[in-house]
Amino acid sequence: MAVLPIVLAADEDPILVTRANRVPRVDDAIRKLMDDMVETMIEAHGAGLAAPQVGVPLRVIVLKVDNQLYQVANPEMVRCEGEQTGVEGCLSVPGLIGDVTRCQRVVAKGLNRHGKEIRVKGDGLLARAIQHEVDHLDGILFTTKVIEGTLRSWDAADVDAEQLEGELVG
Question: Where does the record place the catalytic residues (predicted)?
Fold first, then answer.
């Protein structure tokens, strides 16, 4: 496994604003990508990471919420219920956080690391992380969804940075 460089929005790389390609099949190369993404996400203290954030234009996400690891290829949202508003940040947009309204509960389907179809059900932070990472696959950065007037620098935020660390997504 390897820690991969994270693509930053400040670099204006078009990969962050371009829809990612479907994974044709989950093979050893995709499993290695997933493993490297997990290591990168953990090293960066994120709750999630999408393949475009490491320069790979494929529909692959990894998440780690409440010590549960998820690795999903070709994720698709199949259910979205309720509403929650919370603080988000992004590994590709370091130093900025903002309030984003998202679905409270979601169900996503996709393929696991063995190519088998799975469904991931989540609420709260897991639901937020799934939506944030799927947005990355569609070329959408969280900054485009931030409630007006709430985007702020990490240092200027009226929140304890250590408390936020486990709540910010990738």
Answer: 133
